[in-house]
Write a structure and sequence with these properties.
Layout lengths: L2 H15 L20 H10 L1 E10 L2 E2 L2 H6 L1 E5 L2 E3 L11 E7 L5 E7 L8 E10 L2 E6 L19 E9 L15
Antiparallel strand pairs: 1-2, 1-3, 1-9, 3-4, 4-5, 5-6, 6-7, 7-8, 8-9
Length: about 180
């Protein structure tokens, strides 16, 4: 795979994962969601941890296995980051807010750094079980998906994640620049 293509895929994946999901270093209400509801707190707890991307589709194209293997996401309440080893650099960290009271459930994510710092990315998510989740993201600044699909030309990113561990004990909200 060409280096430029790999960088583009990693950049788009990280934009999508800017929404991968967790519970409350900050109680911001990004998209009018219900960050303080009992249902939101439950989802943030279930979403907190260290996750590996197991399947991805970006704009209708499958994400290569080599990218899947190396894409790790850490979420802690409403903050996320990609460890340097993930190779995801365009959106290394940010915050997100969930709204579990809609069908499908909604997530709004904002990157702290990178070329789209401060830009809203809208998505949907589903907690499949205690160790598996999926998310579908619209393009940064674009509309929210309504289905878990990424068709050619849609600009969407569909992701399936597997929990591989808890939040590392040495990581904190301050690491992503989130207010405490």
């Amino acid at each position: 795979m060409k280096k430029g293509t790999m960088i583009k895929i990693l950049s788009l994946l990280s934009a999508g994962a800017v929404a991968a999901l967790t519970a409350s270093c900050v109680n911001t209400e990004v998209g009018g969601s219900t960050a303080q509801s009992a249902a939101a707190q439950r989802d943030y707890e279930l979403l907190s941890g260290t996750w590996r991307l197991t399947r991805g589709v970006e704009n209708g194209k499958p994400v290569p296995a080599s990218v899947l293997r190396n894409t790790i996401l850490i979420t802690d309440h409403n903050t996320f980051r990609f460890p340097k080893a993930s190779g995801v650099g365009a959106y290394p960290a940010g915050t997100f807010t969930v709204n579990p009271n809609t069908r499908p459930k909604q997530v709004d994510s904002i990157a702290v750094g990178g070329p789209r710092a401060g830009q809203l990315t809208r998505g949907i998510y589903e907690i499949l079980n205690a160790t598996h989740k999926r998310a579908c993201w619209g393009p940064p600044g674009g509309s929210r998906p309504t289905e878990f699909e990424s068709l050619p030309g849609s600009g969407r990113i569909l992701q399936y994640w597997k929990k591989i561990g808890p939040v590392p004990s040495h990581w904190s909200c301050e690491a992503v620049g989130a207010p405490v």
